[in-house]
Write a structure and sequence with these properties.
The protein has 262 residues and is α/β, with parallel strands linked by helices. The protein has a single domain, classed as Aminopeptidase, CATH 3.40.630.40. The protein is built from ten helices and six strands, in the order αβαβαββααααβαβαα.
Length: 262
């Protein structure tokens, strides 16, 4: 009996659950090694006002920081944020930062809004040559409003149209994956948040035209909705958003690995 007690005590002392827990191995991303996260709006461009009086720019930043923390916790990815404080950045400046950094994927984080206050759920957008119509046109106008290029930024004399971007061989290759990125993020976010997946759409967002990598605009929820808007302000919910997006990135990287082997 005494021997059994000593043996049990030894097992308990050497149990990993009671000692120092081993850190989980970080996933080694093979293709999406550098993630650029773009917290929408900032500075003089506050974004949409929420149902609880908080502007979009104050929500997109902590969500983006949570995404960075989750990526560093779970993967070997390098993460670049376009802003880390309440500063203004033009659309061109955001794209230049992403392109200069050499990112493998670009995620622009935003919150949606509806005039009725009843809209809710997740939407993800990738570049389209077609002009936006209806509610999507309103969304593009709202997200791009006040987010023009900084006056100090040198603008190209003949900027590429969306059609030219998609026809350009290098740019087309970069944007070819964007639809898959959008679909995977929408699916994983919907599951992680138990929120309505409103789907994937195409739209001519200004920031998407200039990035030289797969790029999407992620509308993580409706800030104008009384319930969902409140959740978006909560750190626990923001971490759920981050976890859903990181799961999507892991899934995408795995699917790319499979394609490259064939």
């Amino acid at each position: 009996m005494r021997y059994f007690v000593l043996l049990l005590a030894l097992c308990l002392l050497t149990s990993p659950s009671l000692g120092k827990r081993k850190r989980a191995r970080k996933a080694k991303l093979k293709y999406l090694k550098h993630i650029v996260v773009d917290p929408g709006h900032g500075g003089t461009n506050p974004g949409t006002p929420g149902a609880h009086g908080v502007f979009e720019k104050y929500v997109t930043l902590p969500i983006s920081l949570a995404i960075e923390a989750e990526l560093k916790r779970r993967t070997n990815a390098k993460v670049t944020l376009t802003r880390r404080d309440d500063s203004f950045l033009g659309l061109g400046e955001r794209a230049v930062m992403a392109n200069t950094a050499g990112g493998d994927i670009f995620l622009s984080i935003h919150c949606n809004a509806s005039t009725s206050g009843v809209g809710r759920g997740v939407e993800v957008y990738f570049l389209s040559a077609e002009s936006a119509k209806g509610e999507i046109a309103k969304l593009v106008a709202r997200e791009d409003h006040g987010a023009g290029d900084d006056k100090a930024e040198e603008k190209p004399k003949n900027p590429l149209s969306v059609e030219q971007v998609l026809k350009d061989a290098t740019m087309f290759k970069s944007h070819e994956l964007s639809q898959k990125v959008a679909e995977t993020i929408a699916s994983e976010l919907g599951k992680a948040l138990k929120a309505k997946n409103r789907g994937v759409f195409q739209a001519p967002f200004g920031v998407l035209k200039r990035t030289e990598m797969p790029a999407v605009v992620v509308e993580v929820g409706y800030l104008s909705h009384p319930i969902e808007g409140k959740r978006l302000l909560q750190r626990a919910y923001q971490r759920k958003i981050a976890k859903g997006i990181v799961r999507a990135i892991l899934s995408l990287d795995k699917s790319l690995s499979g394609k490259r082997r064939r």
